[in-house]
Amino acid sequence: MSNAPLGVGLIGTGYMGKCHALAWNAVRAVFGDVARPRLEMLCETSDAYASARAAEFGFARATGDWRTLVSDPAVDVVSITTPNQFHAEMATAALEAGKHVWCEKPMAPAFADALAMNAAAEGSGRVAILGYNYIQNPAFREIARLVSEGAIGTPFQIRAEMDEDFMADPDTPFFWKNAASSGYGALDDFAVHPLSLIQRLFGRVERVFCDMAMPYATRTDEAGGQRAVETHDMANMLMRLEGGVQASLQVNRCAWGRKGRIALQIFGSKGAILFDQERMNEVELYRAEGDARQQGFARVLTGPQHPPYDRFVPAPGHGLGFNDLKVVECRELLHAIAGEPATVISFAEGIELERTVHAAARSFESGRWVEVAAVGG
Ligand SMILES: NC(=O)c1ccc[n+]([C@@H]2O[C@H](COP(=O)([O-])OP(=O)(O)OC[C@H]3O[C@@H](n4cnc5c(N)ncnc54)[C@H](O)[C@@H]3O)[C@@H](O)[C@H]2O)c1
User: Fold this and answer.
1) Which of 7, 175, 183, 271 has the smallest C-beta neighbourhood within 10 Å, fewest atoms?
2) 321 Cβ contact list (under 8 Å, min separation 6)
3) Contacts 24+ apart (CB under 8 A), 217-220
4) Cα 1 to the chain's mean position, in Å?
5) With bands split at pLDDT 50, 70 and 90, how would you rate the model's confidence at 3?
6) Ligand 1 in contact with 45 (CB < 6 A)?
């Protein structure tokens, strides 16, 4: 058993807030090797809304003031699931109050703020991780194992795509992801996710060339008027990784028909691997060996032989879902807090993802390749 029971504080209860709440509720039941967390306090934009959500999510107390939550003595770890612009202030305050932090990606729209978050984490001695849930997929862990054990020989190239269509409709109203206060757009909303997978497999991005696009110049605002869109919903990146692997990444939040695509193609000297988050329980493996007449991609369904799938369901091929990845991430966080080996993306590792995003934005502005290390700090 790892950990004494920890007191949890949750700030924000939207898409990701519910996902964190489900994970905190489930982690003990699924894994058994961590103590059941105490759901201490939940924060939303008003006391009344916070109370309603606390009752639904199983939290003991509620507040409309996040500073009350991060300073509460019964709270040991804080989930931050608010829009991007709030992450830096909330995470830094929580760390300075001696709390562990589980903050959603990206770290912060401004690189200086992300650096300050990392400095606060280092100064606190607390565990601070980011919500890069896709690294927790048993299918991705299997891909990492296959690559490291040489199943496809020497890897030469990775191509990645992340596409969804929640902004594809020009009539979708303006919301916080269309404002510059959220960052560049698809770069720090989407690109960081596949970049977390690429970085885990092949190391940091050395240099990048990037083009961005804004398909719709305006969207309808709350008053029914037109408001200028301030973020880019599409980006294409060419990259060279440390160690020499060539990479490309295309991201699009306006890709009709794509609902949750994070597709990888990895090509090596002896084979290839394919993955797509829309079919998150499958890995396709091609081995260039044996009788050429029978060569082709083998479709492997994840099962109990791909840990930690076995902790959720004993039957192969039945499949995990998106929310299950957060339960895995929650368990890894608890292991990290207990000082045990854990698969997490810390603030320190997250900084390198943010550095790549800012290098990509600089490339778009200058029309040139940019060395990622040139983004300071
Ligand atoms: N890891 C992932 O796969 C993933 C997926 C989606 C979003 N995200 C990230 O999660 C974060 C939240 O995104 P979302 O889609 O859940 O947004 P959302 O708009 O659905 O939810 C945000 C919530 O925060 C609350 N909030 C805003 N300001 C607050 C404040 N000052 N105090 C307390 N609560 C406040 C809002 O009322 C809302 O309930 C973003 O940073 C986003 O990038 C991560």
Assistant:
1) 175
2) 280
3) 219/170, 219/172, 219/173, 219/174, 219/178, 220/171, 220/173, 220/174
4) 27
5) low
6) yes
Distances (CA, A) of 267 to 160, 296, 298: 12, 14, 15
Q: Which two tokens stand for residue 63?
A: 């507040």
User: Can you tell me the distance from the alpha carbon of 371 to that of 296, in angstroms, rounded to the nearest whole number?
Assistant: 38
> What's the pLDDT score for residue 120?
98
Specify the residue with its C-alpha closest to ligand 1, atom 18.
14
pLDDT at 118 over 80: yes
| Predicted confidence band of residue 4 (pLDDT cuts 50, 70, 90) | confident
Please work out, in degrees rounded to the nearest 5, the angle formed at the alpha carbon of residue 6 by the alpha carbons of 5 and 11. 145
Check if the beta carbon of residue 80 is closer than 8 Å to that of residue 94.
yes
Q: How far is the CA of 105 from the centre of ligand 1 (A)?
A: 10
The verdict on the CB of residue 43 being under 6 Å from ligand 1 is yes
Using the mean position of ligand 1's atoms as its centre, give its distance from the Cα of residue 116 in Å: 21
Per DSSP bridges, beta strands 7-11 and 38-43 are parallel
Residues 6+ positions from 83 with CB-CB distance below 8 Å: 12, 176, 182
Does residue 276 line the site of ligand 1, with CB under 6 A? no
173: left (phi over 0), alpha (psi -120 to 50) or beta: beta
Measured in Å, residue 325 CA sits from the centre of ligand 1 at: 17
Nearest atom in ligand 1 to 131's CA: 1
Query: Which pTM value belongs to this model?
Result: 0.97
Q: For the segment 318-339, what is each residue's pLDDT rounded down to a tens digit?
A: 999 999 999 999 999 999 999 9
In the DSSP assignment, the letter for residue 104 is P
Q: 86: Cβ below 6 Å to ligand 1?
A: yes
Distance 104 CA to ligand 1 centre (A): 8
Q: Is 116 helix (H, G, I), strand (E, B) or coil?
A: helix
Q: What does 2-58 look like in DSSP terms, one character per residue?
A: B----EEEEE--SHHHHHHHHHHHHHHHHHSSBPPPEEEEEE-SSHHHHHHHHHHHT
On the question of pLDDT at 129 being above 70, the answer is yes
**Pocket test residue of 78, 82, 166 for ligand 1, highest count of atoms within 8 A of CB:** 82
What whole-number distance in Å separates Cα of residue 259 and Cα of residue 163?
Answer: 7
Residue 1 has pLDDT above 60, yes or no: no
Split at pLDDT 50, 70, 90, the class of 376 is confident
